[in-house]
Amino acid sequence: MYNNYYKIGLSLVFTLVATSLVFSQSGEISPKRKQAIDSLALEKVRDLSKYISIIGNKKTAFSEASRVMDRAEELFAPDSEMGVSSLNSKEVKYYKVRKYFEHLIALNYDRVTIQWYDIHYISDLERQPDGKYVGVVTIYQRFEGESDDGLKYKDTTKKDITIYVERKKTQVSGRIIEFWDVLLGDIRVTETSK
Predict the structure, then answer these.
(1) Are 77 and 183 in contact (CB under 8 A)?
(2) Is the predicted pLDDT of residue 193 greater than 90, yes or no?
(3) Domain ranges of the chain
(4) By percentage, how much of the chain surpasses pLDDT 90?
(5) Mean pLDDT of 105-133
(6) What is d(CA 178, CA 162) in angstroms, rounded to the nearest whole number?
(7) Alpha helices (runs of H) in 74-164, residue ranges in sequence order
(8) How far apart are CA 12 and CA 71, in angstroms?
(9) Residue 189 in contact with residue 161, Cβ under 8 Å?
C-alpha cells in the first residue's frame, strides 16, 4: 500500500513540473493549459477521497491510518476545515483537517463505508488580487455506518471544496523551477439527505 502512496506522490511531482513549463511568466494561466491545473485539482480531490475511505475503514490498522492522515493533510492549505453533518441535526460542525480525520477514526461503528462521486468543478478558477487562483469543486459523499448490535446510519452529503492555485518555486538538479501548485481549502457541507 505504501507503494501506491509513493506512486501518487511521484505522479503529482511530475505533473507539477510539467505544468510549470506551460504557463506564461506573467502569472496568467493560459486558457489552453489551464486544463492541466484542473486535472491536478481533481486528482487531488480523488486522492483525498481514497484517503478518507482508508481512514474511515475500521479494518485499517491505526499505524496505517496515521500514515494516510499525514499524506492527506499535505493536500490542504493551512488552517483548512472540513464540515460534518448528520440527518439527526441541522447543525454542521467544522473541524480542522487532522481533527476531522481523528473524528472519523473514532466513529462508533463496526463497519464504515465512505464513497465520493460526481466530482466536478462548479466554479471556474478566478484570479485573486494576490495572484492566487481560487475555484470550487463539488462532490457527493455517501456515508454508511453499521454496528454489530444492529445500529445503522446512512446519508448523502453534498460538499463544496475550495481549491487554491498558486505559483511556487522549487529546486530540481540545481535549477530553480517555478510551478503552479494546487491545495485544497475548506470543505463546506451544502446539503445532507437520505
Answers:
(1) yes
(2) yes
(3) 2-193
(4) 70
(5) 92
(6) 23
(7) 97-105
(8) 13
(9) no
CA proximity to 112, closest of 153, 82, 71? 153
- Is a pLDDT exceeding 90 seen at residue 49? yes
Q: Are 137 and 48 in contact (CB under 8 A)?
A: no
Please check the confidence at residue 22 and state whether its pLDDT lies above 70. Answer: no
Identity of residue 38: D
61 closest CA partner among 8, 144, 7, 2: 2
Mean confidence (pLDDT) of the chain: 87
Residue 193 CA to residue 76 CA, distance in Å, equals: 27
Q: Which residues contact 74 (CB under 8 A, 6 or more apart)?
A: none
- Please provide residue 119's backbone torsions phi and psi, each rounded to the nearest 5 degrees: -85, 120
- In angstroms, the Cα distances linking 159 to 9, 39, 65, 141, 188 are 25, 19, 23, 8, 5
Specify the fold of 2-193: Nuclear Transport Factor 2; Chain: A, (3.10.450)
Which letter does DSSP use for residue 79 in this model?
A: T
pLDDT band at 85 (very low <50, low <70, confident <90, very high): very high
**Residue linked to cell 453534498:** 158
Nearest to 56 by CA among 100, 92, 96: 100
pLDDT of residue 30: 78
